[in-house]
Design brief:
Low-confidence stretches: 14-18, 22-29
Distance between the termini: 13 Å
Length: 162
């Protein structure tokens, strides 16, 4: 039996008129937020915060006259750090709300973190490497749990998804 389509723009109101979109009810049977969604959202938000901090540090170094090969290449790198940070904040937010497209985006982000974390760890920086690898692996494991998959299956429109 499938769930009725849910329009994310119109949250479900319970019998008392309050927004009950996180609680099981007539329109939200079995849609309580799993712990895995919360953990993945926190991991993604922390990664976005780390990218934002790296962008701030990079921008400070750029403004204080740190030597760079090309100025515009450094500006481009700064813009990429800011854009990826904003993207990860959006992914974490919409994953927490249960949109389906965020699972793929979160998985790709975790794979990128792993491709940086493993060389960092094997290059002699064990603690920073583990600080990247462990949360990324935890997020990947939670992304494939059945309750996370069923919760994060909302489509963006008002029509049902296949």
């Amino acid at each position: 039996m499938s769930r009725p389509p849910v329009n994310p723009a119109q949250p479900h109101s319970g019998p008392d008129g309050n927004d009950d979109s996180d609680c099981p009810g007539p329109g939200n049977v079995g849609t309580s937020r799993p712990r895995g969604i919360v953990i993945i959202s926190i991991v993604v938000a922390l990664e976005a915060t780390a990218l934002l901090a790296a962008a701030a540090w990079y921008g400070f170094e750029l403004l204080t006259g740190a030597p760079v090969l090309t100025f515009w290449g450094a500006v481009f790198t700064l813009v990429l750090l800011l854009a990826f940070s904003a993207w990860l904040f959006a992914v974490g937010h919409f994953l927490f709300r249960g949109f389906r497209w965020t699972r793929a985006a979160a998985l790709v982000a975790q794979l990128f973190v792993l491709t940086i974390g493993f060389p960092t760890m094997t290059g002699g920086l064990v603690l920073p490497g583990l600080a990247m690898i462990v949360p990324a692996l935890a997020a990947i494991i939670f992304l494939f749990q059945r309750d996370v998959i069923s919760f994060a299956s909302r489509a963006g429109g008002s029509t049902g998804a296949l």
